[in-house]
Amino acid sequence: MTVLVAPDSFKGTYSAAEVAAAIAAGIRAAGGTAEELPVADGGEGTFDALCSSLGATAVSVAAQNPWGEPLTATVGLSPDGTAVVELAQASGLNVPSSRPRDAVSASTYGTGMMVAAAVDAGATHVMVAAGGSATTDGGAGAIEAINDGGGLRGARLTVLSDVTSTFLDAPRIFGPQKGASPADVGLLEQRLRQLADSYPRNPAGVPRTGAAGGLSGGLWAHFGASLVSGADAVLDAAQFDLHLEAADAVVVGEGRLDSQTGEGKIISAILERVRRSGRSIPVVAV
User: Fold this and answer.
1) Residue 257: its pLDDT value, please?
2) How many CB atoms lie within 10 A of CB 186?
3) Which of 85, 97, 196, 265 is the most buried (most CB within 10 A)?
4) For the chain, which residues score pLDDT lower than 50?
């Protein structure tokens, strides 16, 4: 029996590659054949999964955290001109900071610096993994940084996310987990409403524009960014459907199975791929 092992990371504990290796070891010990294919859905682990699939080389670039302090981030550059940028490295909740982690002032400028650096390095397509942000600035900081860096110069943007929330819903849904008080949420809602009205295209009401505190909506409005399912983008890059053809069973996994599992997360995307294949093979979730 050949088992395709395609888990996400177990957030805060093990990476997707570590989970896949552990599950595969058990399958092999029982006499089975295991193929390890660690995956992600636009959040934690997406950078590693995409860089592995695309054959991208990691390049260090200068950026800054959400509160303006300098840091060094890593951009993945592939031979075909595709770059991978992980928002969480510069604008994430867990980046080091000596300043108060204020949810209202948090900016995506550092993520924009990473995009600009990727374009400087010759990227013609920049994929931005939008999970784990500390920000709700509607992408204003990233837009400023990209323009400060000379613009996209013909490069196209794709934002990968695991949510379908709209621009104006971002403060209410995600603000509290970033430290925003009820009063802060009101301020952020007002700010995003003003930004939406001022942008070249109004992102209010457009699905997926609320990812990363509206970063996806800002990049869509200013640069025509494509907004896509992170799970599907990772599965496509990893050629999941080809691997599925050779498998007799699939093992999937994530740190917690809950109500969000079926809403754009990697497990639901894999179940849909299995369904579309027309094959009746078991899928086991860890």
Assistant:
1) 85
2) 14
3) 85
4) none
CA distances from 198 to 81, 138, 152, 204 (A): 32, 11, 20, 11
User: Which residues, listed in sequence order, are joined to residue 249 by a DSSP beta bridge?
Assistant: 3
SS3 content of the chain, % helix, strand, coil (to 5): 40, 20, 40
Q: Are 210 and 166 in contact (CB under 8 A)?
A: yes
H-run or E-run covering 248? none
Provide the whole-model pTM. Answer: 0.89
Contact status, residue 225 vs residue 255, Cβ threshold 8 Å: no
Q: How many residues does the chain have?
A: 286
**Residue 120 carries which side chain, given as an amino acid letter?**
D
Return d(Cα 160, Cα 226) in angstroms, integer. 9
Distance (Å, rounded) from C-alpha 5 to C-alpha 27?
9
**CB-count exposure of residue 116 (10 Å: 0-12, 13-18, 19+):** buried
